Amino acid sequence: MNSKIILPDVKNIIAVASGKGGVGKTTVTVNLALALQRQGAKVGIFDADVYGPNVPIMLGIHRHKAADGMAAIARRKEAPPYIKPLSRFGLNIMSIGLLVAENEVIDPARSPDAVGQLVVQTLKDVIWGPLDYLLIDLPPSAGQPQASLLQRVPLRGVVIVTTPQDLSLLDASRSLLMFQEANVPILGIVENMSYFICPNCNEKHEIFQRSAKWRPAALAETPILGQIPLTTAVSQSINQANPLMHDHPDTPQAEAFMAVTAVLQQQLQGENNRV
Predict the structure, then answer these.
(1) pLDDT of residue 197
(2) 135 three-state secondary structure
(3) pTM of this structure
(4) Beta-strand (E) ranges in 55-146?
(5) Strands (E), the chain
């Protein structure tokens, strides 16, 4: 059995997961990272999504051809990290999308285990420097590279991103079970696109109507870290490669992300007390 990798300068490695795509997981990851930074933390993001690595694009980073000599290869266990992360908005960034061109695809069906090895090796080979938090943005669903990351990376916990409708919550519960089986602490749920505030009347509307049993049994005891509103400000800022927490840090929408990070830090403190 492979041993856990060691990132000696990183205090907290946190996975951000979802059971399905389209719930805004990467948008939440980027804005949570910036919210933690605004609270004085040193933060990095590792984009482990081999299917659609969107973190670089959301931060205005584009690669039109594959990086030469940067792809992870078999190296000695004691070999030191050698890949310098990119810096954007003060965050240390590394992504599989920085190793391949935007129009290239890694086909996980050809060798799922190799995909997991690629992601873990890349994570290990980055010169992260001192970080309070490293957020790992996972691809949706299960399989690889999640299996390899759960086996090899010492995760402090996982944040589950979902939207309020039943189907998203059901898929999120399946993702949660994968982490529970690996004994990774479930820090909580971020409910994205939770509600909409009309700009004309300021009334709060729930776009995704919850049923009477809106939370599956697997999520029954999982705390909600916070609820992020559905607004044009969030989506427009991502499209413009200026995330909300950087471009509009004093808006009510940004306050929602700050509230999530405050509860997240409380959950981490609780995990410390249980150790």
Answers:
(1) 73
(2) strand
(3) 0.85
(4) 86-88, 91-95, 131-137
(5) 10-17, 43-47, 86-88, 91-95, 131-137, 157-162, 186-191, 196-197, 204-205, 224-227
Domains in the chain: ranges and CATH: 10-274 (3.40.50.300)
pLDDT of residue 31: 92
- How far, CA to CA in Å, does 190 sit from each of 32, 202, 211? 10, 23, 18
Q: Tokens 């930074």 appear where? A: 37
DSSP of 184-241? --EEEEEETT--EE-TTT--EE-SS---TT-S-GGGTTPPEEEE----HHHHHHHHTT
Residue 2 sits at φ, ψ, to 5 deg, of -70, 140
155 vs 70 pLDDT, higher one: 155
> Omega before 145 cis (within 30°)?
yes
Q: For residue range 38-48, what is the model confidence (pLDDT) as tens digits?
A: 999 999 999 99
- What is d(CA 134, CA 156) in angstroms, rounded to the nearest whole number? 10
